[in-house]
Amino acid sequence: MSLKDEAFEAVQTRLHELGWYTGKIDGAPGPLSETAVSDFKRAHGLNPRAFIGPITLTRLFDPEAEARPKPKPAAIGGLPWLAEAERLKGTKEVAGKGNNPIIMDWAENLDQGYTGDDVAWCGLFVAHCMKIGAPLDPQSFNRLGAREWLKFGRAVDPQRGAILVFWRGSKNGWQGHVGFYAGEDADAYHVLGGNQSDAVTVARIAKNRLLGARWPKSFSASGERVTVNAGGKVLSTNEA
């Protein structure tokens, strides 16, 4: 970040005024602040690094600086990782050569080795959202491995905002998928996740594929089950 606490507190305040930053205004850099700076810079045509230089400051304190679109209140509900996941809906990997810089930024900000968005990124998406929303909960496992998320936090019943871990291919194999509980119908969970049709979308995944649901230890569980209509949406069978 490179700014001293007093100056960075002013940056946090301004980002908060514009709706880009939702964390505590304390002058202390962290994942939520870094993401706010990067997102602001990207929206204003700047190199989306968390570094704050004179060009960034000029653009940030310009009276014409763009405010971030307000998220739907129902999407937040006290679960900041779910709000971040909702915000990223529609993010897509790049077909063929090249990578989506947004996805690559997640890996860089997490100090996660990652070669490109042609590599499965459902775990990376969850890691980014949880680092933003629950930074006190360690991710001391292979975050790119979907089934590894069974080691995160604590076990809970499926509920709004929970991390859902699924088997893929074979229940006894190694492949899997991970995303967030957004709702359920009689036969399937509606999962907000990354790398679903190569994008951040909501997919319908059969309940009998569920391996477990996890929750950050630093938050109280929501306990909320959300019943939704299947709406003719087909079951996802392969999220790779």
TrEMBL record:
<dbReference type="InterPro" id="IPR002477">
    <property type="entry name" value="Peptidoglycan-bd-like"/>
</dbReference>
<protein>
    <submittedName>
        <fullName>TIGR02594 family protein</fullName>
    </submittedName>
</protein>
<dbReference type="Pfam" id="PF01471">
    <property type="entry name" value="PG_binding_1"/>
</dbReference>
<dbReference type="InterPro" id="IPR036365">
    <property type="entry name" value="PGBD-like_sf"/>
</dbReference>
<feature type="domain" description="Peptidoglycan binding-like">
    <location>
        <begin position="6"/>
        <end position="60"/>
    </location>
</feature>
<dbReference type="InterPro" id="IPR036366">
    <property type="entry name" value="PGBDSf"/>
</dbReference>
<dbReference type="InterPro" id="IPR013423">
    <property type="entry name" value="CHP02594"/>
</dbReference>
